[in-house]
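Aim 2, interim progress. The first record below pairs a target sequence with its structure tokens.
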Amino acid sequence: MLGWARALLNMSAWDFSLWDAAEMLLSAANPATGFALEFWSVATLVGAALYVVLPVDLLPDVIPVVGWGDDVVAVRRAAGVISAEMLRYKAFKEQQARELGLGRRD
């Protein structure tokens, strides 16, 4: 029934679970890690959260299905930003591990 929502969010394309994403995002936001989240990524995440929560929408939520469409687009955009930031953070951590000599040895 909600296959269209799952397809729109395309969460199966992520290389990690939502829990992993939340944990990595919190770790990436910690200044002690040396990693900086991009300003526009943070702005997009905050904007999407506010857009979904606040009653002011492009399409009012009282209109069934159509009213939620713009919210789904905002969540999808935020999911894409989270995915990109997590991949960037993962590459950053792998680079740190290589520099410290903690990487795999063949």
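The second target in this work package is listed in the same format:
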Amino acid sequence: MNRGRKRKRPVDGWEERGGYMNAKVQKLQEQFDHGEHLQVDDTVQSDIFSGVVIHVNGYTDPSSDELKRLIRMHGGGYQHYYRKTKVTHTVATNLTDTKIKALKGDLIVLPDWITKSLKQATRIKSRC
């Protein structure tokens, strides 16, 4: 046994990118930025959500894919993984007490905040 010693990890190329997870997050962000999730007829229609970056937590109706598409079409951004420094709104239907405490001070909105904003053609005030 090697107590107190760190095992040497094999060189696999991930060290240069800052690790597997950073590479994965970067790739997902690049795909979103290039609109790879959009369908042919999905073009940017407005800037209602300009400056808004959402993270979807758990099950939602409409689905997280549909919310991602709507946000993108209306000038907003999407993060697959929650990052306090990047996310402006967490979209959730149900949250555990632990998650609510962890997100204290962040804007938490229901999925219908997005759909109602689109129906009214303006971003409605988010309530926490």
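Helices lie at 20-33, 64-73, 97-102, 111-120. This observation will shape the mutagenesis plan for the next reporting period.
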